[in-house]
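Entry 14. Structure prediction run on the chain below.
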Amino acid sequence: MHFIVGLLGLALTLAYTLTQGHTSGFSGVIHVPSLVLLGCAPLCMTVASYKFSELGGAARAVFRALRFSAARSRAELYESLTQFASEVRQRRPARALEIASAARHDVLRQLGPLVVRQYSSEDIESTASTSLFCMVSGMKRAEDVLGTLSRVAPATGLVGTVLGLIALLKDLSRFEQLGPSMALALLCTLYGLILANAVYQPLGRIIHSHMTVAVEEARLITRALVLVREDKPLADVRKLFELSATAPATPGASVPEIATGTGGEP
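Output returned:
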């Protein structure tokens, strides 16, 4: 169904561009048919390539990544972990479960009950690895959607350029159409490059950065809960967060390698 909807939207966009692109006036770098083509055609191609659920997940991932603050998230996570550990130490499982269920991080919500029910450290780490894999997979699908958009946008610009050149060469005697045809030919390429490099690629990098921080936090949560399960001092948990806060940033870190090493030392 999504494939048909995407192709239908693409056909309507191209039809509008073909009928209006060579007669519409333009001023400076604003040409409405070119904007419509570059705004709608890449989205239609992406709709044809991905299911609606994947596109919805990508939109939610972008929204979360834009609102995400690593410093605020780390502070909230540390507070939730220390409160949870304190309740576990004081043998108040109901309150500990409340804190875990109210946590913002999915891994803490899933692993907290396992600690309260006294699962082994190996079971906790195994569950964390599975949870982390699912979380990273969802974020990588969102990143892939934006990668597709960043590749399709320049290609769509070239399509508009070809359409404009065809119209330009079709009837050179009609001078009133030369301007709009040249605008369609040149501005489509410009719009495509701007969309790809100034919109879609930065959004993809924002999601990747969010994913890297989320993986790091998941490893911190897993190690901290293992320490709580093994009745280790809470100071060790604080040291983990201090080490993470002072660790140098690694923009080129490979997320899949991080994801498979959940059970290792941070």
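The two ends are 45 Å apart (CA to CA).
Filed with the rest of this week's runs.
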